Amino acid sequence: MSQAELTAVPAPRTAPRALWAFGILRSELATTLRRWRTLALLGVLAAVPVLIGIAVRIETGDGSRGGPDGGGGPAFLSQVTNNGLFLVFAALSATLPVFLPMAVGVVAGDSVAGEASGGTLRYLLVAPAGRTRLLLVKYASVLVFCLVATLVVAASALAAGALLFPVGEVTTISGTRIGFGEGLLRAGLIAVAVAVSLTGFAALGLFISTLTDSGVAAMAATVGVLITAQILDTMPQLEGIHPYLFPHYWMSFTDLLRDPVHWDELTRNLGLQALYAAVFGSAAWARFTTKDVSV
Amino acid sequence: MTDTAAEAGETEAETGPVPGSVIETRGLTKRYRGGQLAVDGLDLAVPAGSVFGFLGPNGSGKTTTIRMLMGLIAPTSGTAHVLGCRMPAASRTVLPQVGALIEGPALYPFLTGRGNLVRFDSADPAADPRTRRARVENALDRVGLAAAAGKKARTYSLGMKQRLGLAAALLQPRGLLVLDEPTNGLDPQGMREIRSLVRDLAAEGTTVFLSSHLLDEIEQVCTHAAVMARGRLLVQGPVAELAAGARGRLAVTTPDPGDAARILAEHGATGLVTEGDRVSADAPPGGTEPADLNAALVRGGVRVRAFGIERASLEDAFVALTGEGFDVAG
Ligand SMILES: Nc1ncnc2c1ncn2[C@@H]1O[C@H](COP(=O)(O)OP(=O)(O)O)[C@@H](O)[C@H]1O
Ligand SMILES: [Mg+2]
Questions:
Q1: Where do the TM regions start and end (chain A) (predicted)?
Q2: What residues in A contact B67, CB-CB < 8 Å?
Q3: Most buried among B70, B159, B212, B301, by the most CB within 10 A?
Q4: pTM
Q5: Cα B182 to Cα A30: distance, rounded to the nearest angstrom
Q6: For residue A105, what are the domain limits?
């Protein structure tokens, strides 16, 4: 070891140093994504589209494709039998209100508090990871999880849809028809839009995670906030505050299936998520950089 | 380490701590949010190259002091310098040169022993990723965990966890090792191994700051010691001086203990204890020659079988300082 270090020292230190800082991000991603708990969450998320697909397939097993469908259930469900690609949209509509954010809430809520309750936080800090750097890395890895979780749902839905149903041209919400390739592209955009929808909530979870030294408490509180916001968003008496609730524009991703795309609510969603990320990211930073780490 | 050392040097010039001290605190005080005064006006000076024992019963503020030294908690008042730099402001330059075991090991149970070390090494931005593997294997070797490195940390015994925690502290060549009760919960064999590791490290020139509530541990491995009780520093200095500072006990073995006790008392001896044919007392203060006391006993008709001064131990020093046994503080 000393040999290697001696040869490493005279090399220019500034350039590699900037890259060395990414070591902790890599470690954080590997630690988060390879955990059994994370894999279980992703497994559940991957199973949802498969179950929806099978249910739709059984329901319409007599071959009466696209029979009259009174609605109910997630959006796009009625089109799934005509085009398996719609299972992607149906599955994202089904998981976005609860399953996806709940998984994000678990990962975000546990991110700092879990390290605190395990005692590993003190060893990361004396390593020294640096409080700001550690918090940035934690948020970055939660964001990566948002994207991975969404892509898992989308990919599983695409695979199940292609296996169980025919695929082909897509009829947009506006009634126009677009090619399958274009449809796939829209599905990819929608997955990204859904992942972005979760970024504000992820920042909120990170903030809650800096408030307590108990991982379980932070996870529970984060998921509690999610459910509360969802309930408030359905109460007509509170219409005034609806535009400021982080889940309010979540379903705006469906506007990507219009022709032409309606950007209005999509950009509003983007702005709202950025606002949440800025406010709760700053709050998390203010809290974490001054916090007594005494466990 | 080269540029880190240079940065440390600059900070040193600005803040000007006493040279030769690896740890230096002035009036360091911590009151926890609950109102508990855990450390009270601590003035500590740890000389470079020493094995410094930080001794105190449970609850005396040792861990709290270490948390402040490592920048984990902010002092309520007072200052702390580590390796010449003010903490916690200089954490980024100081901490890569410090290995620490604070209040027991903490591991990721779902990672292997090796995975844990890789994680802690990655967290240090001063650690070159190209030599990470070598550092990790070296540290595992050093604590004798190479064979178990592939097992998940949740399967480790307490002793193995403690060693892995030590390995994390030894990932880099360190200028200072801070070990908070490193032998806690270990069996005697494990204790011996850790103590011998500490001696080896000290022999290599690393300053070791070792907290403990075990007197004999400090006596066995430390060159210097500080004694804490209820958050306050009672005394600090070289171990030999501390033990010498406590007066030894005068012990007389005689078939005439009653007469012996009377004569010793007449000559100003205090703290007399008679047990069977043995009379002991605090050794007389500086001016009195013990041989004169012996002569007085013989003149008084006491048949002296044995007469001597028993050397004071650190424990005597502690009891003399606190006026109480070495028990858990309230
Ligand atoms: N996180 C904390 N919050 C409040 N009080 C604490 C905390 N940690 C320790 N204390 C109190 O501070 C005092 C000193 O504790 P500590 O520094 O852990 O002592 P030691 O390490 O010498 O056993 C004790 O009375 C303890 O109860
Ligand atoms: Mg302690």
A1: 39-58, 85-108, 139-165, 185-208
A2: 122, 292-294
A3: B70
A4: 0.83
A5: 30
A6: 36-290
